[in-house]
Amino acid sequence: MLRIAVPNKGSLSEPASAMLHEAGYRQRKHSKELVLTDPDNNVEFFFLRPRDIAIYVGSGRLDAGITGRDLLMDSGAEAEEILQLGLAPATFRYAAPAPIARELAEQGKKGLAGLRVASSYIGIVQRDFAEHGIEAAALVKLDGAVETAIQLGVADVIADVVETGTTLAQAGLEVFGEPILRSEAVLIRRAGAETSPALEQLVRRLQGVLVARSYVMMDYDIRVERVEAAVTLTPGLESPTVSPLHNEGWVAVRAMVPRKNAQQIMDDLWEIGARAILVTGIHACRL
Ligand SMILES: Nc1ncnc2c1ncn2[C@@H]1O[C@H](COP(=O)(O)OP(=O)(O)OP(=O)(O)O)[C@@H](O)[C@H]1O
Ligand SMILES: O=P(O)(O)OC[C@H]1O[C@H](OP(=O)(O)OP(=O)(O)O)[C@H](O)[C@@H]1O
Ligand SMILES: [Mg+2]
């Protein structure tokens, strides 16, 4: 039975579970359920703290897990990404009170040398300092609400997850320097582990959800002499389906198009004479 770790709390929990549900797996009904068996799919789900997931997967106790790239890197666990899920995107950045942040932005990484840095992700900060050959006066590990650490005098700068930037702005802090990393939810397995048919099936199902979420199916009718122009607008993934219509001189075209471009493509198709343009959602797919 495939054993998969799923975040039980926090920003990743709900979107990860929703994606697994969309991929046809049973998901828990109550937030207190910690283990759930899905006998139809021969899978067992373990609902764990997102921060711990890379440790379980890296140790080989679980076959795969969903966690954040930042949490994976911070853990130092022997686990690797096998699929990017595009959920819960965030950057991981240094920040400081506005005037200091501007000064540090000009100095580059060496400006961090000798400062006290507070973070919930000390592993990432340590690695960043080592990579740039600089030493901090102290790395202060905190559980959360890191933004307050400077005001309370335990740190000079912080390193934290930034999504909208609202929390930083409210604390009077500004980011400086390039993001240390760009994070999102990822599917991980033990580094170098051999893949299995069951794990490949999970990956294919999740890929199917990603495609179903980001593409729609577009159908339209167009005169034969315009079909070449039309299919350059809707090239599909491999090639669009073109079928004859009962009315001579017209064909029907069917192609997948990126969801975010659908309205613009419909406008462009209309301009070149396409009619009966229909867009439908894709519920699932294997490409
Ligand atoms: N606004 C956000 N705040 C925190 N983490 C976020 C945010 N957006 C995305 N993430 C990602 O979620 C993961 C952190 O999840 P985790 O459950 O540890 O913290 P959390 O969402 O802040 O929950 P909590 O602090 O309530 O425990 C990381 O991979 C992080 O990049
Ligand atoms: O850029 P934003 O959209 O403001 O989101 C980022 C903030 O959200 C998280 O804190 P959270 O609310 O999880 O509290 P915590 O610090 O106690 O974990 C994170 O640690 C940042 O503080
Ligand atoms: Mg948090």
Main β-sheet: number of strands, strand sense, barrel status?
Answer: 6 strands, mixed
Q: How many domain regions?
A: 3
Strand tally is: 15
SS summary, helix count:
9
Structure in words:
The protein has helices at 13-22, 50-58, 69-75, 98-107, 122-131, 166-170, 197-214, 227-233, 262-271, and strands at 2-7, 35-38, 43-48, 64-68, 79-84, 90-97, 116-119, 138-141, 157-162, 173-183, 185-190, 215-223, 241-244, 250-258, 275-281. By secondary structure, the chain is an alpha/beta fold. It folds into 3 domains: 2-88 and 185-194, D-Maltodextrin-Binding Protein, domain 2 (3-Layer(aba) Sandwich), CATH 3.40.190; 90-183, D-Maltodextrin-Binding Protein, domain 2; 215-281, Alpha-Beta Plaits. The strands form 3 sheets. A 6-stranded mixed sheet has the order 2-3-1-4-11-5, sandwiched between helices. A 5-stranded mixed sheet has the order 8-7-9-6-10. Helix 3 (69-75) crosses helix 5. The chain is globular and about 80 Å long. The model has no long low-confidence stretch (mean pLDDT 97). It binds adenosine-5'-triphosphate, 1-O-pyrophosphono-5-O-phosphono-alpha-D-ribofuranose (PRP) and magnesium ion. 1-O-pyrophosphono-5-O-phosphono-alpha-D-ribofuranose (PRP) binds at residues 144-147, 160-167. Residues 144-147, 160-167 line the site of 1-O-pyrophosphono-5-O-phosphono-alpha-D-ribofuranose. Residues 49-208 form the ATP phosphoribosyltransferase catalytic domain.
